[in-house]
Request: fold
Amino acid sequence: MKQARKKFKLKKKSAKVIQKNIAYRILIEPIITEAATIAVELNKYVFKVATDATKTQIKVAIEELYKVKVKAVNTLNTHRKPVSYGRTPGFKAASKKAVVTLKAGDSIELFKGA
Reply:
């Protein structure tokens, strides 16, 4: 004899909410250094991203969060580096950077109120 299984209907979140949550998981933080600030003049922005993020995912995340058009995405992996914490040796974590080039006329305001 088979027992009747109850099917529960889950509330579906809207696609925009899910996509926005994913975008926040892909883009960790903007990288603000002297070189990155100079790159802003060339319409390039540098972000620290998730290590498993692809160029396509990064492009969609930037376009969704900042409402701009992305021209190109270049990525690079930074390897872990040995550091010393007093007498204890350790490593600085590996990460991934993305250099995002925007189309002419678009810009991202990283410093609001400055």
In short: The chain has one domain: 16-102.
